[in-house]
Amino acid sequence: MLENLLFQLELGAPQIVLGLVNGAFYAMLSLGLAVIFGMLNVINFAHGAQFMMGAFAAWMLLNWLGIGYWGALVLAPLLVGAFGVLIERTMISRLYKLDHLYGLLLTFGLALIIEGLARNEFGASGMPYGVPDLFQGWVIDLDFMILPAYRAWVVVAALIMCIATWLVIEKTRLGAYLRAATENAALVQAFGVNVPRMITLTYGAGVALAAFAGVLAAPIYSVNPGMGANFIITVFAVVVIGGMGSILGSVITGFGLGLVEGLTKVVWPEASATVIFVVMAIVLLARPAGLFGRA
Question: Domain 14-116+135-286 falls in which CATH fold?
Answer without folding.
Answer: ABC transporter involved in vitamin B12 uptake, BtuC (1.10.3470)
